[in-house]
Amino acid sequence: MLARYEFTGFWAGKAVDFIRRHKAGPFFVELWPQDVHTPHVPDPEKLPTVAGTPKPHRKFNAVLRRYDREIGRVLDFLKAEGLEQNTIIVFSADNGPEPSFQRQRAGGLECQGRTSGFSRAPMVYTDVYPSKGVLEAVLGPEKRP
Q1: d(Cα 57, Cα 81) in Å, to the nearest integer?
Q2: For the whole model, what pTM was predicted?
Q3: Is 35 exposed, middle or buried (0-12, 13-18, 19+ CB in 10 A)?
Q4: Per-residue pLDDT tens digits for 107-145
Q5: Max alpha carbon distance in the chain (Å)?
Q6: Which residues, including other chains, have CB under 8 Å from residue 95's CB and lie 6 or more apart?
Q7: CA-closest candidate to residue 14, choices 2, 37, 30, 36
Q8: Under a CB-based contact definition with an 8 Å cutoff, are residues 68 and 88 in contact?
Q9: d(CA 106, CA 118)
């Protein structure tokens, strides 16, 4: 069984493998990393890399660094394979930060599990049907997804 801190790396690897096998044609990958959700369980060997951050934030900062590295691995693969310019990448948020670290992670907004905080923050809503409509409008009918 994987340790919790290995989840995003595992799924990022699966995403890269899928893209490698399907890069010749259109493909769709949906990657939902879990590391940044509570409980924050970092790789114990990586905790020293965040020793300079406030103690209540260390575990979160350590899992965020791993998350960043793993997402970077997927983006680097797209670039190395020449797919970067022909790939639409959407980053989205879920229902807000938990814990909020005294509202610091949400720019002072109160949005733990509430959408009101995100209504004032930039984000892309990734429901498949509205996104498909936007893509059709941008690409034109001849290149419908």
Answers
A1: 36
A2: 0.70
A3: buried
A4: 555 555 444 444 444 444 444 445 555 556 556 655 544
A5: 54
A6: 111, 113, 114, 115
A7: 30
A8: no
A9: 9
